[in-house]
Task: structure prediction
Amino acid sequence: MSNNTPANFKMEYRFKAPRDLVFKAFSTAEALNEWWGPVETRNSVISLDFRPGGIFHFRMEGAGQVSYGRFLFRDIQPPHLLEFTNAFADE
Result:
């Protein structure tokens, strides 16, 4: 691979829970506030636009630090596919 070729990364995780429940955990602000982020941080949903092209913008607080992140949803096919990119973000 040359330096000009972007690298692709795919991560897959299989949950031991009903598919509908796992999908719902990603699709509502209430659920994301409860579980997203490291266990030692407190998560706050700033905005959630759960649709292809939509953004989940969030704030994480812990150990005296604050950081922000965002998902950019690419493909959503309930309840079997949820494709997004996750990155750090500005406030």
Remarks:
- Residues 57 and 70 are 4 Å apart (CA to CA).
- The radius of gyration is 15 Å.
